[in-house]
Amino acid sequence: MHSLSSRIAATCLGILVTCAAMAPGVRAAARDGTQYLVPVGHTVGVKLFSDGVLVVGLSDGETPAKESGLREGDILLSFNGTDVDSTEHLQRLLSENGEAVATINVKRGAKTLTLRVTPEAGEDGVCRLGAWIRDSMAGIGTMTFYDPVSGVFGSLGHGVTDVDTGALMPLEHGSIMDATVKAVKRGESGSPGELRGDFDLTRDSGSLYANTDCGLFGVIEGESNAITARQPVPVAGRDEVTTGDAVILANCGGDEVREYQISIERIYSGSSPTRNMLIRITDPELLAQIGGIVQGMSGSPILQNGKLVGAVTHVLVGDAERGYGIFIENMLDAAGLPAAK
Q1: Active site residues
Q2: For residue 12, how many other CB atoms are within 10 A of its CB?
Q3: In whole angstroms, what is the distance from residue 299 CA to residue 305 CA?
Q4: According to the model, what pLDDT value does residue 214 have?
Q5: Any idea which fold 60-129 has?
Q6: Whole-prediction pTM value?
Q7: Which residue from 207, 225, 205 is spatially nearest to 171, judged by alpha carbons?
Q8: H or E, element range at 226
């Protein structure tokens, strides 16, 4: 969800700074063989806590982490057989272990490895591995859809990745909060803009159950006018999406979600799960207001011919008016909400 480096061609549009299982047996609302979802388009605050701790870097020089074979991007799951819950928890385990040889279990891609490490005490007496780790992230993004039958929502259209490693954050638990947009940094060529929001820290409005390449998914808790205000619309299959005029729903100021004109310029048939269409902002008001697509708009629903077809996922760094979108079918598959047949 944090923006990727401006050196690449496009950047993810959610914003996160440092600070899963699928839904069981659910299916979105359907009638007459057609699936219906509420297109949302409202910003939400996100809190995400990792399953284990993510290694985001290694200290310079020879360190216990390097000697053990630990790598940037590894997920440290346990220390001497004890599951690691947070950075503070790992530090307590290191303190209790001292400089004795310890066993750590790490997840590296699809593999789980067991490594042996010998922590070293610094001049302050604190035992360390020589690795930088992270256990949580928080920020702002946009909710794409809400299913009034199951209570499931989908957001972002891409996964929450670590700002330093680009690795998908392993979700242990998390939640969303109501949010409003207080300011917008305008997008320009070579410098993606961003939405800046205020969060309602007094309550969580939903819980998360999956962080996937195709989005962040959870279940709504209680009522929220910002989420349930619109009526459900039919869901389009990927074969129904065409080049031409369409609209997005976006929350680019305060608490208001508005409809903006776009053009779907190209449909991709490749294997990328999140870059299924090339879109261009054509709405004069949105272009004048923020310059096109900005970070925080990831997840903004795309509608064409009255149907929900997908969501905005990336902005082209060199052209803020253009970006990528994901098919809604891909988000539903990742959410555990198979399309109605």
Answers
A1: 158, 283, 298
A2: 27
A3: 19
A4: 95
A5: Pdz3 Domain (2.30.42)
A6: 0.79
A7: 207
A8: helix 225-228
